[in-house]
């Protein structure tokens, strides 16, 4: 049994438990699968796509979609790309430097398919991190909507 397969051992708090768990690749693998599943379900809800409709778009049986969305699936990259395309999306991946936080947002590309609100600077607050850089990368401050 490899060191990564060993039980986490004893811990006195949830913080200590997660501190130990986050040192293992399996933690991050499971988190990535759950995040992808959450995003797929959110897209299905936003576009009013049923499991049956997604199954039809993927050309699979509905039971396969249920399994994919269970959160217990070991996704292949090709499956993630196919699911994204079936949900009218593009699959994107990102390497986040340790010690940094990532903010994902989609930028309107000019195709008219939705109504967007007019920019109201009073509804946004400038966000600036304590550290202007993360590793060797420079990041631009963002405007965040706090509704």
Quick summary:
The chain is mainly alpha-helical and 147 residues long.
Count of the separate structural domains: 1
CATH homologous superfamily classification? lambda repressor-like DNA-binding domains
CATH architecture annotation: Orthogonal Bundle
Q: Extract low-pLDDT stretches.
A: 143-147
End-to-end separation: 50 Å
Question: What is the spatial order of strands in the main beta sheet?
Answer: 1-4
Give the CATH class.
Answer: Mainly Alpha
Can you characterise this structure?
This protein is 38% helix and 8% strand. The protein is mainly alpha-helical and 147 residues long. It has one domain: 434 Repressor (Amino-terminal Domain) (Orthogonal Bundle), CATH 1.10.260. The strands form two sheets. It has a two-stranded antiparallel ribbon. A hairpin with a 2-residue loop joins strand 2 (133-134) and strand 3. The termini are far apart. Mean pLDDT is 78; it is low at 143-147.
What order do the helices and strands come in, and which of them pair?
Layout: H1 14-21, H2 25-47, H3 51-58, H4 62-68, H5 77-86, E1 124-127, E2 133-134, E3 137-138, E4 142-145
Antiparallel strand pairs: 1-4, 2-3
Helix pairs in contact: 3-4
Give structural attributes.
147 residues, 434 Repressor (Amino-terminal Domain), two-stranded antiparallel ribbon, two-stranded antiparallel sheet, 4 strands, 38% helix, extended
């Amino acid at each position: 049994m490899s060191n990564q397969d060993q039980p986490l051992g004893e811990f006195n708090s949830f913080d200590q438990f997660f501190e130990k768990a986050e040192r293992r690749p399996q933690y991050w693998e499971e988190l990535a699968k759950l995040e992808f599943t959450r995003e797929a379900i959110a897209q299905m809800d936003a576009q009013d796509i049923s499991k049956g409709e997604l199954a039809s778009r993927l050309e699979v049986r509905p039971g396969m979609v249920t399994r994919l969305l269970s959160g217990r699936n070991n996704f292949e990259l090709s499956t993630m790309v196919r699911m994204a395309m079936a949900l009218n999306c593009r699959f994107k991946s990102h390497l986040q430097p340790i010690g940094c936080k990532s903010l994902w947002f989609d930028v309107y590309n000019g195709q008219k398919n939705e109504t967007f609100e007019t920019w109201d600077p009073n509804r946004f607050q400038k966000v600036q991190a304590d550290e202007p850089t993360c590793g060797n990368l420079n990041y631009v401050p963002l405007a965040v909507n706090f509704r």
